Amino acid sequence: MMEVCGSTNVSLREFGCEQTLLSRPDGSASFVQGDTSVIAAVYGPAEVKVSKEIYDRATLEVLIQPKVGLPSVRERSQEQCVRETCEASLLLTLHPRSSLTLVLQLIHDDGSRLACFLNAACMALMDAGLPMSCLFCGVTCAINADSDIITDPTAAQEKESRALMTFAIDSKEQRVMMSYTKGSFSVHELQQCIAVSQKASENIFQFYRDSVRRRYSKNL
Amino acid sequence: MKDTPLSNCERDFLLKAIEEKKRLDGRQTYDYRKMKITFGTDYGCCFVDLGKTRVMAQVSGELVAPKENRPNEGIMFFNIELSPMASPAFEQGRQSELSVKLNRQLERCLRNSKCIDTESLCVVSGEKVWQIRVDVHMLNHDGNLMDAASIAAITALCHFKRPDVGIQGDEVTVYSPEERDPIPLSIYHMPISVSFSFFQQGTYLLVDPCEREERVMDGLLMIAMNKHREICSIQSSGGIMLLKEQVMRCSKIASVKVSEITELISKALENDKRARKAGGRCGFAESMPQERITALKTDETSVEMTDASERANDIVENAEVPPQTVPSPVVPAPGVGQEMWLRYLTVKRRKWSFFIQKHRTNLLKMQHPVPTRRGQKRQNKDRKNESKNSLNCI
């Protein structure tokens, strides 16, 4: 078994969130992790094209817009990851023959893109008031050349890492909903990273609770 | 997704209010909405809020080969993205009429007015020039996308700094921002577009229409001007017939508005320059309003790792051993087609004719598809089933 000398002081960068920043979408949120920032907007439940409708559930469509240029294959694969996570947590059967559209715009990329997308998506879905069975959050772990685990890496740290993993963790039982990995790592390192991500997700869920509590602190 | 249609009573209400010189949000006829300009973390990223309309522009540059008919000039590329985020009516990928119109107007406003010195973008004549790409993303559509887009684009171009380039003989070195300070673009003037919407066949006019007003308007007049009172482009759409006096009046109003907006842009650029010099962090994260209840920010948090590694160790130790993988999952049974195929593969190394001799009867029974002429049906329809049986026994 490989010895992973994990340092005991992994940290998450400062994060911030603003909800309902756009007036047209049904729900919108911006999520900031360090310098990485993303804006998410949700429209739904709305009318769906007949070609895309599903008879017993809502059709979820995720669109990721990069900052420069047109969306490419990388955006498509990230869209798939986000869509599968959302479909697992949203109660789609409550809105059959409707469409839910989630649009994510990357504002600045300084590492942990996919995790930021997931967090912004969850906050936007909450802001839109869509029924969900659980909340989810995204955590990115990087393993650098010294086999140290770094959570929420910056772009520079991601570049030097040997392996990069993003996990979507659910809020009820801290289980892994989606994983996206790049690079080579051992089984032991994978389990370490999952355990660290589950620990880190507790901070993020606490942040969700705090921001929603703050939001509804004033009775309008 | 379709946008909600405008109801007749809303339309009548808006038109009647405009006749009485009243607007939905209480503005005067010539008033602009509150404008806010903020910048992103890297150079060339700019956000413009015009009331509730939000637009983001990003400028980027890369070295490419120049166009053949202009070997000494750099290339400017403009792209307006009507993101589905901005309005439910916008669809991803499809070039709608509005998207084409906005793109063309922005190009005329910025490219044809020659506000950027493209000759300064040349590195090696005929081989390498800078291609400056401006991407404008619409984040929220609450009317007057064109004005917001033009302000965002020109502000982002003023804010952008391209990497420094050194030429030694045949070698071109591009220095990173850490090695040498990046250089701003040389911009001659700042064209800004002002939109006028007309109602009741040109009788009433409003500056900076919001989304509802845009829906009931008859026509739109867009004047792009710079602060030196030079008109860069005029576009009238909607088929309204305007008198000369109306157009002159609009251009006078536009010159006043453009000078106000240009001053706002210069102030915003100054503030940003000062903030960056002072060393503070700038960007979208910093410009998030803190005092609102819809926004929250936390500091850097640490994650407890102590029992995480123990849990991981437990999981790996208690995991089941993965099943042994079988090298070849297919086991050939005698008298089955697969066996025949395996035999054929081995025979390929030996004599092909010997193989045919041995299995002549079976091979003859196999069907060869007969090429049919048009209109003629296949002749071997009744022999189809027979061949299937023969294949089984092979």
From TrEMBL, chain A:
Belongs to the RNase PH family. This is Exosome complex component RRP46. Pfam families: RNase_PH, RNase_PH_C. Its main location: cytoplasm. The keyword Nucleus applies. It comes from Pogonophryne albipinna. GO terms for biological process: nuclear mRNA surveillance; poly(A)-dependent snoRNA 3'-end processing; rRNA catabolic process; rRNA processing; U4 snRNA 3'-end processing. Residues 12-131, 135-199 form the Exoribonuclease phosphorolytic domain. GO terms for cellular component: cytoplasmic exosome (RNase complex); nuclear exosome (RNase complex); nucleolus. One of its GO terms (molecular function) is DNA binding. It is found in: Cytoplasm; Nucleus, Nucleolus. SUPFAM superfamilies: Ribonuclease PH domain 2-like, Ribosomal protein S5 domain 2-like. Keywords: Cytoplasm, DNA-binding, Exosome, Nucleus, Phosphoprotein, rRNA processing. Homodimer. Component of the RNA exosome core complex (Exo-9), composed of EXOSC1, EXOSC2, EXOSC3, EXOSC4, EXOSC5, EXOSC6, EXOSC7, EXOSC8 and EXOSC9; within the complex interacts with EXOSC3, EXOSC8, and EXOSC9. The catalytically inactive RNA exosome core complex (Exo-9) associates with the catalytic subunit EXOSC10/RRP6. Exo-9 may associate with DIS3 to form the nucleolar exosome complex, or DIS3L to form the cytoplasmic exosome complex.
TrEMBL record, chain B:
Keywords: Cytoplasm, Exosome, Nucleus, RNA-binding, rRNA processing. GO terms for biological process: exonucleolytic trimming to generate mature 3'-end of 5.8S rRNA from tricistronic rRNA transcript (SSU-rRNA, 5.8S rRNA, LSU-rRNA); nuclear mRNA surveillance; nuclear polyadenylation-dependent rRNA catabolic process; rRNA catabolic process; TRAMP-dependent tRNA surveillance pathway; U1 snRNA 3'-end processing; U4 snRNA 3'-end processing; U5 snRNA 3'-end processing. GO terms for cellular component: cytoplasmic exosome (RNase complex); nuclear exosome (RNase complex); nucleolus. GO terms for molecular function: mRNA 3'-UTR AU-rich region binding. InterPro entries: ExoRNase_PH_dom1, ExoRNase_PH_dom2, ExoRNase_PH_dom2_sf, Exosome_comp_Rrp42_subfam, PNPase/RNase_PH_dom_sf, Ribosomal_Su5_D2-typ_SF, Rrp45. It is found in: Cytoplasm; Nucleus, Nucleolus. Coiled coil: none annotated. Residues 32-163, 189-255 form the Exoribonuclease phosphorolytic domain. Residues 366-394 are annotated as: Disordered. Belongs to the RNase PH family. This is Exosome complex component RRP45.
